[in-house]
Specification:
Radius of gyration: 32 Å
Largest sheet: 2 strands, antiparallel
Shape: flat
Helix content: 25-40%
Strand order of the largest sheet: 1-4
Length: about 140
């Protein structure tokens, strides 16, 4: 066995008989971009399930995959792996923009009230400095 206490470069040159240290560079992965935990059949089944459940979130798709036995209990796969798989295949895009439902309108008076509060200026009363507050209340009865 070679003694490699002096330096890594010297150790590599001694072992390889060369002047360069390419042996320290990492090798390229043959499975780059593919999940190692899932086989091709499972990937195709998950993609098909995602296409069936277009509006569902990722946790819902994973739950349904476990219920349909696409993901077996022995397989431990991280949700980020499934997310990357769907994103690579263009399955994580929103089909249409959700409807904006932020409306605060009432049909009748006194149905919806809006309020707000803020710190006001400091004022002097009887020689003492006092803190003030401003509160506003609005009956939000706008015509549609």
């Amino acid at each position: 066995m070679t003694n490699c206490t002096n330096s890594t470069a010297r150790c590599v040159r001694k072992k390889k008989g060369g002047r360069r240290i390419e042996s320290l560079y990492p090798d390229a992965r043959c499975d780059r971009g593919r999940p190692r935990v899932l086989d091709e059949e499972t990937i195709l089944s998950l993609v098909e399930l995602r296409k069936q459940l277009k509006g569902a979130s990722l946790p819902v798709v994973l739950r349904e995959a476990k219920l349909r036995k696409i993901l077996h209990p022995g397989i431990k796969v991280h949700p980020a792996t499934i997310y990357r798989l769907f994103k690579q295949r263009g399955l994580m895009k929103r089909e249409n923009t959700p409807v904006d439902r932020r409306r605060f309108e009432a049909e009748l008076p006194n149905d919806i009230w809006q309020s707000d509060g803020m710190h006001g200026p400091r004022i002097f009363i009887d020689g003492k400095e006092r803190k003030t507050y401003l509160f506003a209340f609005i009956d939000d009865n706008r015509p549609g």
